[in-house]
Design goal:
The protein contains 18 helices and 2 strands. The chain is an all-alpha fold. The protein has 2 domains: 349 residues, no CATH class; 71 residues, no CATH class. A two-stranded antiparallel sheet has the order 1-2.
């Protein structure tokens, strides 16, 4: 039998396991293809870099990662940080912030901070995810509606600007984006084993050809090792890049460790992540992301949809992670001519659909049954992502728990009582949120 890291049973590896890993790797690659292209486009990077991230990091993660079925790639949680860096300094800015975040993730591993990062209250993480989902939907509205791009960084401000132009919306991009969203939703509901985003993109491409739509397309895709991203460090980076890199490292680390827990739970292994494994996972992804960052490629994070789909389709060992990169490389190499004709409106539909998925409707339905603290942290974090920025949102959400901790501690010690672990354990808030 395989152990939880996939390390103890290579001597027992056989063709049956290999075929299962092939199935898991193939489905993960099919999901990664449209998602990687759309995420890189959303960040303002060349679309192919979203694919390059998976191809470069997967071998390192497969070799060094602790969770065998945690498959990484370009993810939505990194979008605000990398997009801001691209807007200010281009691809070189993306390389800077990714390199800083990667080094900090390795430092988290050495300092054994991974075991503590995993204790961030789940309400904050859920609120952050909802906020990112909102940003993804809002950021693609102008492409789907065919109107001018909004200005500014605040998502709510962008939404107002797009809605002001709704009278100038065009039918063609709206139809193509709508086809992707509808097809992905139907596949996700009735055919979960089908790569929903890819099915939507294929249908949109067929519709564009049949209906004679001539919309902007992805363009030429060449999956080859690009030159190192050109950039120079300057004194302003101390106050601009380093804080963003720290926030990116923190958010990426939380995403990785929580996704790892979700994957293990899905596989029927309900134990908490071991502290040493949490630290080592961050180190593995830090090394992998450093290799991608020097080329300006986005950081790799844990992708739940990709990981769970790989498990569902037979993947059992870290070989499925490696094979997903191999299949992805082959898909782009053999199909670059077809991929170049994907309408940008279709990729916008993929991004918007993934944004809808991140809105976590189940959490909204549970809102009335949550503790007041958890509900407040959830709402404050989600709103702050849209109104301020992602860094401030995480700080605001966590600060509510710090204030509650200080208030409870003062109250308990003021009464001359000994506080119980349940009273002072912020991590207990995470479990309380999950139970509700």
């Amino acid at each position: 039998m395989l152990d939880r890291t996939g390390k103890s049973s290579w001597k027992k590896y056989n063709w049956k396991l290999f075929l299962g890993d092939c199935g898991g790797g193939a489905i993960a690659a099919l999901i990664a293809l449209p998602y990687g292209l759309s995420m890189a486009t959303l960040m303002g990077l060349p679309p192919i870099l979203g694919i390059l991230t998976s191809v470069l990091t997967a071998p390192i993660i497969a070799a060094l990662g602790r969770n065998a079925m945690l498959i990484g790639g370009t993810g939505s949680v990194t979008v605000p940080f990398i997009a801001a860096a691209v807007r200010s300094q281009g691809i070189g800015g993306a390389a800077k912030v990714s390199i800083v975040a990667s080094v900090l993730m390795m430092a988290f591993c050495v300092l054994r901070l991974g075991r503590h990062v995993s204790k961030v209250p789940h309400a904050v993480v859920a609120g952050f995810s909802v906020g990112i989902g909102g940003i993804m939907v809002i950021s693609q509205l102008n492409v789907i509606l065919g109107v001018g791009a909004p200005k500014g960084d605040a998502a709510l401000s962008q939404l107002i600007q797009v809605l002001a132009q709704i009278g100038h919306a065009r039918l063609a991009p709206l139809v193509l984006g709508g086809i992707v969203i509808a097809a992905a939703a139907v596949c996700g509901r009735f055919a979960p084993r089908v790569p929903a985003p890819l099915a939507g993109v294929v249908l949109a491409g067929v519709a564009a050809t049949v209906l004679g739509f001539h919309e902007a397309q992805v363009g030429s895709l060449k999956l080859e090792l690009p030159p190192f991203a050109g950039f120079a460090w300057n004194p302003q980076d101390v106050v601009q890049v380093i804080p963003s890199g720290l926030a990116l490292a923190f958010v990426t680390s939380v995403n990785l460790l929580m996704t790892s827990r979700v994957v293990e739970h899905f596989r029927g292994r309900h134990q908490h992540v071991k502290r040493a494994d949490a630290d080592a996972e961050l180190g593995a992804y830090g090394i992998a992301n450093l290799c991608a960052g020097v080329f300006g490629a986005p950081m790799s994070v844990g992708i739940p949809a990709r990981s769970l789909a790989a498990v569902r389709c037979g993947g059992t060992t870290r070989m499925s992670n490696l094979l997903h990169a191999v299949f992805l490389f082959v898909l782009v190499k053999l199909g670059s001519g077809y991929l170049a004709h994907i309408p940008l409106a279709a990729l916008a539909g993929v991004t918007a659909w993934m944004g809808f998925c991140l809105l976590d409707w189940s959490a909204w339905r549970r809102l009335g049954r949550m503790r007041a603290l958890d509900a407040s942290a959830f709402l404050a974090t989600a709103l702050a992502v849209l109104v301020v920025n992602a860094v401030a949102a995480v700080l605001i959400g966590c600060s509510l728990y710090v204030v509650e901790y200080a208030r409870t501690r003062t109250k308990v010690f003021g009464a001359g009582l000994r506080p119980s672990p349940q009273t002072l354990n912020v991590g207990g808030a995470q479990r309380q949120f999950s139970r509700h």
